Amino acid sequence: MVAEYAVYEGDTFLVMGTAKECASWLGVTPKYIQWLTYPAARKRFESRVDKSKCMTAIKLEDDDFE
Questions:
Q1: What are the φ/ψ torsions at residue 2 (nearest 5 degrees)?
Q2: Which of 17, 18, 25, 57 has the highest CB neighbour count under 10 A?
Q3: Rg (CA), the chain
Q4: Residue 60's closest CA among 30, 42, 37, 31?
Q5: Is the dihedral of CA 30, 39, 9, 66 positive or negative?
Q6: d(CA 49, CA 33)
Q7: Does 53 have pLDDT greater than 80?
Q8: Average pLDDT, whole number, for the chain?
Q9: Does the reported pTM lie above 0.70?
């Protein structure tokens, strides 16, 4: 099964789908979408003063759909 992601800019939902689908929609690479879910990216997001211009992603698990 291919992992799905929900991508946000600040609190605004942008797109949901596989890393490849999200990347295509946003004009970035699939690796970047995956990186957005890593602890380092989360830490950078949380340290931002203005989060409204910062992109973040959540990797959706199978449990999220039940």
A1: -90, 135
A2: 57
A3: 12
A4: 37
A5: positive
A6: 22
A7: yes
A8: 91
A9: yes
